[in-house]
Design a protein that fits this description.
The chain has a six-stranded parallel beta sheet. The protein has a three-stranded parallel beta sheet with strand order 3-4-5. A two-stranded antiparallel sheet has the order 1-2. It is about 40% helix and about 15% strand. The protein has helices at about 40-50, 75-80, 100, 110-115, 140-155, 170-180, 200-210, 230-240, 265-280, 280-295; strands spanning about 5, 10, 20-25, 55-60, 85, 85-90, 130-135, 160-165, 190, 210-215, 245-250. The protein has one domain (about 5-295): Alpha-Beta Barrel (TIM Barrel), CATH 3.20.20. It is of the alpha/beta class. The longest helix has 17 residues, at about 140-155.
């Protein structure tokens, strides 16, 4: 039976409700000094606001070694009534010190599998997807190593693989590696940040391969392309790929949270979804937030 692996256990896909398919409750990186997401109270408030707006599930794409705070996720889920999906995997190498990466050499796939099947550290919280990352229009040696480990973990567990595309680029190279050389089924791959590079031809080619396409934001850093997202989704829908679209918020700094005056998680349902409905209709937006997300995340776990 296909289920979605949440921090409180496996649930039926139909229980997710409206899904924020890419966001962060906790995040820490040397590339974002002073902008860490570490406050449990702020995470709770953000989830409560998302729930009040009609949200049902948040997928945290924070991977191994970036301050996931997995042990805090179950209580946050219980207290707010929001399903949470945690991630394993690895981001780009610039987000880690060499000691962290060295400790994973030769065993990354085993770590991913353990976090998917047994739990993250001593928390007992099992991850529900694998997150990896590409580079700007290219895949370096680290990306290829991490994706190879992710593919191995996928083949062992069935877990979906979510991919950070740097500035929205490199989608086809990622698919060539993951779905070509590494034989991951395309419907188990979620490409993130496609709104940051609104190349409709690449979007259509990626969708034609059979993967899911996540449009996540907005943010100050990538605002220049935010306004083109409805057109990009409409183009995919017109080409018959509306059932492969996902939406997320991707909150990566404390200032971006709604509790600190930013758009935060509620913005996805309060402003993004209604704006998108003007372009593609309310029914497709409903499917994007519910049916599409549940299919992308649901797995026959091995």
């Amino acid at each position: 039976m296909r289920t979605v692996r949440t921090v409180l256990g496996d649930v039926a896909p139909g229980e997710l409700g409206g899904c924020n398919a890419h966001d962060h409750l906790f995040l820490a990186s040397p590339r974002l000094p002073g902008q860490e997401l570490r406050s449990v109270a702020a995470a709770r408030a953000e989830l409560a606001a998302f729930r009040e707006g009609g949200g049902g599930t948040v997928v945290q794409w924070t991977p191994h070694g970036m301050g996931r705070r997995a042990g805090d996720l179950p209580s946050l889920s219980r207290e707010t009534g929001v399903h949470l999906v945690a991630a394993t995997g690895l981001h780009q190498d610039v987000h880690y010190d060499e000691e962290t990466l060295a400790a994973l050499r030769g065993r990354a796939a085993d770590v991913f599998v353990t976090e998917l099947t047994e739990g993250i550290g001593t928390s007992g919280v099992r991850a529900g997807l694998i997150k990896v990352a590409g580079g700007f229009h290219a895949l370096d040696a680290h990306a290829r190593w991490a994706m190879s480990a992710a593919a191995e973990a996928h083949h062992a567990t069935g877990a979906p693989i979510a991919v950070h595309l740097e500035l929205g680029t490199g989608a086809l190279d990622v698919l060539d590696l993951l779905c070509g050389a590494l034989e991951v089924p395309p419907h188990r791959v979620i490409l993130g940040h496609l709104n940051r590079s609104p190349d409709l031809v690449v979007h259509r080619e990626a969708a034609g391969a059979g993967c899911y396409l996540a449009f996540d934001g907005p943010s100050r850093a990538h605002h220049a392309t935010d306004w083109r997202m409805p057109d990009a989704v409409r183009a995919l829908a017109d080409a018959g790929h509306g059932d492969q679209v996902l939406l997320g918020g991707d909150t990566t700094t404390a200032a971006a949270r709604s509790v600190n005056g930013g758009p935060g998680m509620p913005h996805l349902l309060r402003r993004v979804a209604p704006r998108l409905a003007q372009a593609v209709g309310e029914e497709l937006v409903r499917r994007v937030l519910t049916t599409n997300a549940s299919r992308a995340l649901a797995v026959e776990w091995r």
